[in-house]
Amino acid sequence: QVQLVESGGGLVQPGGSLRLSCAASRRTPNINTMGWYRQAPGKQREFVALTTTGGTTNYAESVKGRFTVSRDNDKNMLYLQMNSLKPEDTATYYCKLHNIRSGIDYWGQGTQVTVSS
After folding, report:
1. Strands of 77-82's sheet, edge to edge?
2. Residue-by-residue DSSP string for 17-61
3. Sign of the C-alpha dihedral computed for residues 62, 59, 92 and 12 taken in this order
4. Considering only CA atoms, which of 86, 79, 53, 49 is closest in space to residue 64?
5. What CA–CA distance (Å, rounded) separates 5 from 93?
6. How many helices (H) and strands (E) does the chain have?
7. Which residues contact 74 (CB under 8 A, 6 or more apart)?
């Protein structure tokens, strides 16, 4: 069973930056897609960004040019560098790992990001 733990959330002013991290257990499947999702109160969880084992990335239109997703396969780590943050970025951010072979999704517990002056 894959374990995911997010960290790095906090309070930041509009226009500021924040870096989120996701630590995965050592038993993480080699072939997978890891990504970030977020959910604000009263809203559905939405896709933010993802990266494959090979490093291919995709982003939601709302964060393109501001967020950068990356991974370190040797350390089983996933990152999300968030720049030019806006109040609408406020949400709980979740790390997800998708096992391509089995089709199973694994989720972390989430980390809170609040963008406010």
Report:
1. 4-7, 18-24, 77-82, 67-72
2. -EEEEEEE-TT--SSEEEEEEEE-TTS--EEEEEEETT--EEE-T
3. negative
4. 49
5. 11
6. 0, 11
7. none
76 closest CA partner among 18, 23, 6, 5: 23
Structure token digits, residue 27: 């038993």
Q: In one letter, which amino acid is 23?
A: A
At 19, list the tokens. Answer: 């870096």
Residue type at 105 in one-letter notation:
D
pLDDT tens track, the chain, 117 positions: 789 999 999 999 999 999 999 999 977 777 889 999 999 999 999 999 999 988 899 999 999 999 999 999 888 899 999 999 999 999 999 999 999 889 999 999 999 999 999
